[in-house]
């Protein structure tokens, strides 16, 4: 069944699989494992080396190597799952190579997403942080639910439009800082600090930094360090955004009060 | 009572982050349960021991074991359970506070927050490694149970 797979075809498909997995937030060891798994099922001795910024696929004893450049992306775990299901079915022999190629292409192009209202609702739920239960007042947590929606929307809507990296995260922080400080100076909220920390939960790169240490422990030092530095700078731009937002809001409030 | 509230809020938090990171629908419920149980474990350990390390380590072990088990049962990659379940434990807020102090030029607090964030991240990562070692011991047993349950359904 697998006789007619050409080497070039296989390498191309493997590169595509690796690229989708990396940009959707899979760990590098998993990417390498999946690609080599597909290669072995197609009776080729494939080697894959993945870092977070580049992916190399090659057949052992051959000179050809396929290089794919990867950009850091957001989490899209549904794609990881679909690729995983496809590769498993291919290895089990339930689908042939042509079908695998076709489906991978479809997955690459398809936008698999929850609808916007669902995502916004999700972000709002994350904005009520369990960390602050019984520390912040319930009213503040309730406000964080709504401030979180605006922060998430600001970051998510601006990120496809602004090409400069890290600006979208900064805008999210700016919105949250602005709204929270405004609510406090209007006397509605008790503590702007609590609202800000809580409402930033969907934006802040906590999961990324934990995953980066998992990579480092897994001896994928390069990917781990790249992820960690990226997370640090995202946190930095959010922090700067909040500081600016809070400053702007207090200026606005003073101007408004002075008039 | 407090534990119940913590359980519900962390469940909602995990499901919410699952929606944001776009997990497959069938893994929302197992991820939510894993996340909330891990948070309760964290909360209970925190009542006894006030340090950052032991509580996060315990929570990571709970996520690691439950996550691997549900990955086998629901046939999803483990990472899909890990990422949403981690959201309430992870040092994102502290990282932000640290970088904010950095922006404001407050070196002492920057150092303190960054150190805490590092401690939590490493405690969680090491917890996962330990959980995977434990899970590899119970995996053959689990596979036997799963395959025995699935066979009558296939026929």
UniProtKB/TrEMBL annotation, chain A:
One of the GO BP terms on file: succinate transport
UniProt keywords, alphabetically: Cell membrane, Membrane, Transmembrane, Transmembrane helix
One GO location term (cellular component): plasma membrane
Domain of life per record: Bacteria
Native species: Lentilactobacillus parabuchneri DSM 5707 = NBRC 107865
TM region(s), chain numbering: 136-154, 166-186, 192-210, 231-253
Membrane topology: Multi-pass membrane protein
Location in the cell: Cell membrane
Threonine/serine exporter-like N-terminal domain mapped to chain residues: 13-248
Family (UniProt): Belongs to the ThrE exporter (TC 2.A.79) family.
GO molecular function: transmembrane transporter activity
Main location group: membrane
Protein name (record): Threonine/serine exporter-like N-terminal domain-containing protein
UniProtKB/TrEMBL annotation, chain B:
Keywords in alphabetical order: Cell inner membrane, Cell membrane, Membrane, Transmembrane, Transmembrane helix
Keyword Transmembrane helix appears in the UniProt entry: yes
Record carries keyword Isomerase: no
Gene Ontology biological-process annotations: succinate transport
Membrane topology: Multi-pass membrane protein
TM spans (from-to): 28-46, 53-74, 80-99, 111-135
Cellular localization per UniProt: Cell membrane
A matching Pfam family: ThrE_2
Threonine/Serine exporter ThrE domain: residues covered: 7-134
Highest taxon listed in the record's lineage: Bacteria
GO cellular component: plasma membrane
Family: Belongs to the ThrE exporter (TC 2.A.79) family.
Name by which UniProt lists this protein: Threonine/Serine exporter ThrE domain-containing protein
UniProt organism field: Lentilactobacillus parabuchneri DSM 5707 = NBRC 107865
